Every structure is written in structure tokens, then in C-alpha cells.
Amino acid sequence: MTQLRVGVIGTGDPAKGASRMGYAMAYQHADAYVSLDNCQLVACADIKQENAEAFAKHYQLPNFYLSHQEMLTQEDLDIVSVCVWPHLHARLVLDAIDAGVRAIHSEKPMAETWGDARRMVLAAEKNSVQLTFNHQRRFGKPFSMAKDLLKSGQIGDLLRLEAACGDIYDYGTHYIDMFGFYNQDLPAKWVQGQIDYRTKNLVFGAMVENQATALWEYQNGVFGFIATGLGSRSVGVHNRLIGTEGVIEVGADNVHLRIQRNGKSWETIDTQGEHLHGPGFIERGIADLIDSFHNGTEPELSGRRALNATEIIFSIYESSRRRSRIDLPLDIDDNPLVEMVESGALQPE
């Protein structure tokens, strides 16, 4: 069996622990590749020598680099994982495409701006590169079983999707992506939202709102609603699927998955030892993208699907900037939240 040569950009430092400064996701990506017989992890790059050296030692890699460009030039890589802060994603993804890498798996959120998100996907399509983003909850049983319940008609026809979390950009990208997962990966038609940014709030170096509420409609008439920050309590559950004949909730009242049919009592569904964050989500996601690479099929974590969610995120910020509904497709290039702060329209403490 010919093994695919894999490199990782941005190793991080797991000794620092998980925080809004980083999660050292490269190690989770690497563990997934190492578990696959058809992949060989061969190199890594990080701007901090101690990080790159520690990663290489941990995985017994022959080479490590302090420059991603040098790694891309020196190593004949088939696949690259990009595990850096969001504002660097576009540049590194485009560099990997230019270097001839055939598959790229990036951490989420997609990019710091809507324009960069689109440019990555368009460049990948133009160069026949498989581009994926780590919305790994698509491979978690609480979420996939919720989708199975919906598809089997347990709550009738889907009417509305609701979510609550800390912010729409970093955390919310997972749940807005999950709405696509539940709803045939359809794009939205329009988005209307409002945000509050009274206090400086950075996650992985990116601005995220303090609080937001947003409503949108998908092309099939299903509505999406999200509340973040203090407003998340108004939803009170991570994901809610509302149908004509019942409701499914994911992550409510310390229950990973439950269903209410026709107004009857809630029924808890066994998620077979999995919760909202794992285990095994990333491993399954990477195994799927490797299978798709070999079979020529669209991976579950495809750039196209990620772009649907990302368009909604930036449309929420744009709706707040314009103080109006945003009809899609979204026609901006920047990040409206960043621009509002830089222009003085928002003045966080």
C-alpha cells in the first residue's frame, strides 16, 4: 500500500493546556493520521523551535521546520494539516495549494474575512485540491443520531433549528455548520442579526462578539436561530430541532440527546458513551477525508459545506453593520466586526 505523506503546520504546545490562546490541535490531527495505515506523518513546521522539535520527537519525525514554506519546498507532501490561528489560514492554505499539495485539512473557523474564505475554496477548486475544515461534530453520535431521528420522520417535517453558545465566529461555526448537517447542507436565503461588542473579546487572536442574536431562512424554508453570550440562556440548549410533530434536543439539562414526540414526555437517547466533544470525532473526520481523497467523493468536512456556515456568520456581522436584513449571496470581502471596531463605530472597553 502506498502511503500518503502528511505534514503539519502549527504544532502548538500541549503543555500550556487548552484555552482561548490555543488547543494544540495538531496533536489530535496527528494522532488521527498515525492511526491510519495509508498515511505517513513525515514532517512538521512551527515558528517556535521548541514546539516543532517537541512535536517531531513525540511522533519520531525525521524532519521539522521553522518555516512552512521550507517544509512545503523540501518535502513531497500529499496532505497538509493547518493548525494555526484563523487569520493565518488563508495564506497557509494558498501556499500549500501553490506548492502542489493535493489535500489540505484546516482548523476552523475558516478565515478572518469572508473574502479569504471564498478565495481558499475557489483556489482549491481551480487546482483540484481537496480542502476540508475541522467541523468535527458531524462525526459525533449525539449529532449524527439527532440527524438520523430527523431523517426517519420521528419529529415530522423540519421547521426550525436553534442553537446557543458563547459566540458565533469561533464556537458558533460548529453549530451553524451543524444546522447545514441537519438540513441537507443547503445555503441560506437571507440573514438578519444584531451583536453587542462593548468589551474587547479575542479567541485565538480573532475578535468575537460579546452577545448576538440572529435569524435566517434556508432555501427550503427552514429557519435558523442562534443566541450567544448572555442571550444563550434564552435557548437553553446547544442544538434544538423543531419539527411539525416533535422536538429533538442535543445537549440539554446534562442530557446529550433527547426527543419529545407530539408533546409527550421527553425520551433520553443513549449516545453510546459519546458526549458533545468526543471521543473519536476528529479521528473519524480525518479517516473520512482520506477515504474521499482516494475515492474522488466530496468529504463530509468539505470547503463547500464550511462556506455555507461561514457566509451566515459574516452575514450576521454585516447585518449588524448595515442595520438591515442581508440577502444572500453575501457581497462583501472584509470582516464587518473588525471594520466596525477599526472605524470607531464600535468602541469596546
Commentary on this structure:
There is one protein chain. This protein has 349 residues and is α/β, with parallel strands linked by helices. It has two domains: 4-136 and 280-301, 3-Layer(aba) Sandwich (Rossmann fold), CATH 3.40.50.720; 138-277 and 308-343, Dihydrodipicolinate Reductase, domain 2, CATH 3.30.360.10. The protein is built from ten helices and 17 strands. A nine-stranded mixed β-sheet has the order 16-15-14-13-7-12-11-8-17. It has a six-stranded parallel β-sheet with strand order 3-2-1-4-5-6, with helices on both faces. The chain is globular and about 60 Å long. The mean pLDDT is 96.
Multimeric status of the protein: single chain
What is the helical fraction, as a range of percent?
Answer: 25-40%
- The name of the CATH architecture of the largest domain is 2-Layer Sandwich
Number of domains: 2
- List the helices and strands in order: EHEHEHEHEHEHEHEEEEEEEEEHHEH
Intertermini distance: 57 Å
Structural class: alpha/beta
Low-pLDDT sequence parts:
none
Radius of gyration (CA) equals: 20 Å
- At the fourth level of CATH, the homologous superfamily of the largest domain is Dihydrodipicolinate Reductase, domain 2
Mean pLDDT across residues? 96
Q: How is the largest sheet built, in terms of strand order?
A: 16-15-14-13-7-12-11-8-17
Strand content: 15-25%
Biggest pleated-sheet summary: 9 strands, mixed
Tell me the number of strands.
17
* Number of helical segments with 4 or more residues: 10
CATH topology of the largest domain: Dihydrodipicolinate Reductase, domain 2
CATH class category label of the largest domain: Alpha Beta
